[in-house]
Specification:
Enolase-like, domain 1; FAD/NAD(P)-binding domain
Amino acid sequence: MTSADSEPTLDVDLAVIGFGKGGKTLAAALAKAGKRIAMIEQSAQMYGGTCINIGCVPTKALVYRGEHPESLGDVVDGSARWAAAVGATSELTTLLRGKNFAMLDTADTATVITGRAAFVDQHTLLVTAGDDRLLVRADTIVINTGAVPVIPDIPGLRDCACVVTSTGLLSLPTRPDRLIVLGGGYVGVEFASMQASFGAQVTLLQRRDHLLPAEDEDISDRVAALLAESGVRVITDAAVSGVSETDAGASVEYTRPDGTVESVEGDIVLAALGRRPMTDGLGLDRVGIETDARGAVVVDEHLRTSMPHVFAVGDVNGGPQYTYVSLDDYRIVLDQFTGEGTRSTADRVAVPHVVFTTPPLARVGLTEREARTTGRRLRMAVREVGAMATVPRARIVGDTRGVMKAVTDASTGEILGVTMLSYDSHETINTVAVAMRFGATAQQLRDGIYTHPSMTEALNDLFGALTPLVE
């Protein structure tokens, strides 16, 4: 390995590997405090991290434009709308990428370095970009390299030119006429819904017997029904056994539980089969930084690795892969430098999540299935959005589809979990999450005063419908 005497060297207080949410926010905060910062990002196209470039922002921008054709002017044809939406989304991500770069590049004590970083020793990183090499010595190092899509070892999947990941699909200039989605998890379902809104013929193959296995089956079934209404062909109990190229695109073979082999053809195949922490090439084993079986950097509740001066934040540490969790990682690490050092991952409660189907699916807390395992006496309510006469907002916007579900402790009124498949659920769920964090009871949400007409006032109806859960 190159010695420190033969390469140009930059000495800093903090080096961050990867421009994601947690790392960039920490770097900006400490640069503002006068610390010497090095932000190392392997690609100029990833300034700002996954969320604004290949994750949340472009995906949700395309979902919005698929739901609102009028946002694209007079473009009517679905394929043309896709091309226009991709162009508009690219302009958005370019703008945000520039703002994120400027946030650090204009700080007097921060240096943005474009290149690949690898550990040389416990405090030194070698950054390479072509023939250029730079050693970065840092008192503290933060690993913030995110996650990448998993491409399983399915025959033909890795070799087929028609196979893309979510990253590739987001930038396709031409909408596929026939899209095959492999995987019925959050990414697969969201992309299937989005592509259908642009008029693509979508087939979704799910290995399990229902979509979204982390959710209750009745909720998964409702999502599947919504997808079907939008034109998506959902095939469950389909174990993909091979992918091959055809003159028109690709053919995907799948095996049924009884051993029957069937196939479906499409122009593009989206592999939405999970994501894994990106730790390849960092040289972690060289310096004794522990990783788990999936490659995630092992951290304690303060996000310290097996080397106390090295932290791991965001998707790379194996936690929930949400931008807002990465932002909370930043708060935990910052507290180690500027606070009391007590903030930890154990403080996180009632963290919501959303799948941006149309309408979106949001949940915070336990599912009914999980609540049943607690041994508590439970009360539950399930309400059809269209049946909520006191919630006119859904009718005003013309979308009464979906269902809401709540599970509570029958003795204390503690809210254990709420699931919302409805218009604006991605906003309404935050009210429930805050209530749960501060210990509000089901009765308090039932009797809460909310703006009208809004989807939040559905909480009056939902928690007013609680009944004992019969075993």
